[in-house]
Amino acid sequence: MTDPAGWTAAHLADRVTDLRQVARADEYTLADGGRRIRLSAARGFDVEILPDRGFDLGAVAYDGVPLGFCTPAIRTPAVPDGSDEQFARRFGAGLLTTCGLDSYGLPTQDAGQHLPQHGRAADLSAHEVAVRTEWVDGAYRLTASGRMRQWRLVGEDLDWRRTVSIDLGGDTLVITDAVTNQGRTRWPHMMLYHLNLGFPMLDGTSTIEVSRPGPPEEPTPRDETARGGLGTWSRFPEPLPGEPEQVFRHDLPTDRPGEVTVTTPSIGRALTVQVDPAQLPYVFQWRSARAGLYALGIEPGNVPTMDGRAVARAAGVLPYLEPGERADYRVGVRITPAG
């Protein structure tokens, strides 16, 4: 039996002395610095986790096929430099860069506070880091967890706990988050999952589909450049020299699970991002088809604007966490055959 989905505990007990032969969870430090966790399952997910960068996901592959988009900054420490270029210079991408916890979108001034582009979540370093392996309901599960805290003197105190898990023989990577306001006053809470796809999961055969009833609906373009791409938002081109980026917003229906599927026939794979629309009702689509910067962002979020917290506040769409209140999130990344 070569399909890991059929590898039960009894089946493996006769064939494997140490389960690390087929699935392993490792913690290590790079020679030039930086903590890493790796969850790896035979013929399934191979996941790099970055505890020093918001417990985000670096390079991720499935059955040997790379899924994400990575930049040189993924190897550098996430030390804030205080400038509005901070995100552009330190965006390592990987399969996931988390944006939040109290702002995302453009850098802005709000309530007397300077907010960098996409917030500070990806700058946070995890503590109480743990990895474990266990049988759960017949599946051998690999799990990594960490805890982060966004705190400022006479400001926010946001506790963030994240768990990342995969199953041996499974087709879904699961990220669960809990963000709690530990402060004494209510505080803004904006959360966005900047999932980044790249070659070979992404190429000129790739199509994008958003789950909704009836025929496909046009998304909301961010600007005039994106408006010019409305006719082709659901198809991804081959790399184009100098192509400008385009950003669209999809509003998820609340009567069904939220899913965005990228299908790439050339490799025979489809990747589906799964969310609960009650938690993350909007999905931004970042399309960067420029040669040398070839990426697709699928970005579920809880606020319908990328123009920053001040704009969200002025529009009356800024969410808050009351003291002691917790917000929970689940994001799944599922790999299936194309078809």
TrEMBL record:
Q: InterPro entries in the record, alphabetically?
A: DUF4432, Gal_mutarotase_sf_dom, GH-type_carb-bd
Residue runs in coiled coils: none
Q: Which Pfam families match?
A: DUF4432
What's a single GO BP term from this record? Answer: carbohydrate metabolic process
Spell out the residue ranges making up region: Disordered. 206-242
Molecular function in Gene Ontology: carbohydrate binding; catalytic activity
- Name recorded for this polypeptide: DUF4432 family protein
